[in-house]
Amino acid sequence: MAPFTTLAEFREVLAAAPGSDQFARDQAEARNERLTKPLRALGRLDDLAIWMAGWQRTPKPTVDRPQIAIFAGNHGVTTARAVSAYPAEVTEQMVLNFQAGGAAINQIARSVGARLTVHAIDLHRPTADFTQGPAMTEEECVSALQIGWKAVEDGTDLFVAGEMGIGNTTAAAAIATALFGGSPCDWVGRGTGVDESGLLRKVEAVEAGLAVNPGARTNALEALRCLGGREIAAMAGSIARARVDSIPVILDGFICTAAAAVLARAVPGALDHVQAGHQSAEAAHRNMLLRLELDPLLTLGMRLGEGSGAAVAISVVRAAVACQSGMASFDEAGVTG
Ligand SMILES: Cc1cc2ncn([C@H]3O[C@H](COP(=O)(O)O)[C@@H](O)[C@H]3O)c2cc1C
Ligand SMILES: O=C(O)c1cccnc1
């Protein structure tokens, strides 16, 4: 059972999470300095390895059991405001595709040796249209957070949260506007590829959403409840669970980062266990990462979601820990240091 039944309790549980292990980081750094390579010659991979060591509380971190959890949800705003280039039924059709193994994320997950779990949340009951009032009641939002919380499997040593939800770049842009300020134009983008009039409808939807949900601007969890969707709340719940259990997380693109941003704004330090896997081609993603002081591992022009960018970055983190944990020291190899 998840240890919270209200948004306030969720916040408290997250705020009580322990930090990373300084002793393990120091040990990892000392080990790293003895490995058969010029000092810090692996650049960001060395930083990643030491960061992984701190969260896994060992100088020899692993990526043996990575998990990718995809959460799916539908949004009232999608049909009410025609904010996507695709119809809402694609959400459920793609869930079937994930289950059959036919989506991009299935192939990437297999290629990096990650377990993939799929969590469809109430697809036949879209959230309420956030331009008319809150997208979710507190009960609905908490229930989605709990689904994310419970989705993180025991033994996972690296976690990725992915999403599927037609219209969710509009929800993510609305959350970003509420959390970071500025105007909706700063945060709205093309998503699946809307045209100019689609872009305008997205901006207008975000404007209306903020106007009817004034609490969203002053309280991050209210922003999630009023403007988010079930899959976005579930991603936030899973990233919070990973924080509490000291499991390192790789963030995916625009929507995943918006879910994470809610946690960062609710509790300082809530994203200490997170790396940005990639910078999405969705224009505002770069800005969101800058605001969160996250430096993406990859920039591949991807704008898919499903956890796909983060899944590709699993191989980068795995390469980092493979060197940290598998390399010989100068002494062991008889190399002059
Ligand atoms: C076939 C298909 C597969 C997808 N996989 C992820 N998304 C991505 O597109 C959606 C967000 O874009 P928007 O806000 O424009 O609807 C999300 O479902 C996201 O995961 C997909 C979208 C489609 C059409
Ligand atoms: O950045 C993403 O993850 C993204 C961008 C566009 C559409 N779906 C997802």
Write up this protein.
The protein contains 16 helices and 5 strands. The protein is of the alpha/beta class and 337 residues long. The protein has one domain (65-318): Nicotinate-nucleotide-dimethylbenzimidazole phosphoribosyltransferase (CobT), large domain (Rossmann fold), CATH 3.40.50.10210. Helix 13 links the parallel strand 4 and strand 5 (274-276). The protein is globular. The model has no long low-confidence stretch (mean pLDDT 98). Alpha-ribazole-5'-phosphate binds at residues 84-86, 90, 94, 163-170, 191-192, 304-306. Keywords: Cobalamin biosynthesis, Glycosyltransferase, Transferase. The active site is at 306 (proton acceptor).
- Number of structural units classed as domains: 1
CATH class: Alpha Beta
* Unreliable residue stretches: none
| Cα radius of gyration in angstroms | 20 Å
Output the number of helix runs: 16
Helix/strand-derived category reads: alpha/beta
Counting DSSP E segments of at least 2 residues, the number of strands comes to: 5
- Specify the helix fraction band: 40-55%
CATH topology: Rossmann fold
Biggest sheet layout: 5 strands, parallel
Function: Catalyzes the synthesis of alpha-ribazole-5'-phosphate from nicotinate mononucleotide (NAMN) and 5,6-dimethylbenzimidazole (DMB).
Family: Belongs to the CobT family.
Active site: 306
GO biological process, one term: cobalamin biosynthetic process
